[in-house]
Fold:
Amino acid sequence: MRFEKEKEEIKIIFCKMFTKVIDNLKSSLNYYLYEKEKKDNLIIDDDIINNYERELESKCMKILLKESIYSDDFREISATLEMIDSLERIGDNAFDIKNMSDDLKTTNYKLPNKEIEALSLFILKTIEETYYAYIKEDIDSANEIIKKDDEVDKMYWNEILHLASLNDERKIDGKATVFTSHILKYLERIEDQITNISEWIVYIKTGYHKDRIII
Structure:
């Protein structure tokens, strides 16, 4: 089959990028959830993720620019480009969570409540499930992951409303409210990108994206 060697190289690099993003997200969330003091020596290396992104985009475009490419190859490579973009955005959000946590830890605040911890760990578990769905080409798992987006949205809004209530009651200061609301938004965005990746996993195998056939 055409481009099998090239596609295998892309998968290997994509998996490396995926695992690095997961590692960065774990580090950022552990810092946010469990460290009371600011840690300047904690480095979230986003540059390596950006390097993977550029390398993968180059390899994908070299295939797409070939004069003769089969529809299955086009579908897989075009979807991979979309997943690369989503994965890079998750990497950015992991970086942002660490930086926003730095700011949060300069305020008079308490460590996140159990509900925020549950939301964070839920998202972390979901991105790991997405990684394995990609490796195994498991569209059933991918479809189950897609369904979790609504659950995360509910958890997110519950915590935003709770945060607003604490601020109204002067139980949390203004800066801590702002920093925490940003972190919650980053978590919600990460789940959106996880959903996007899962939808493209389904598309690669079926040709359907969000219940609409593309190619």
Q: What stands out?
A: The two ends are 19 Å apart (CA to CA).
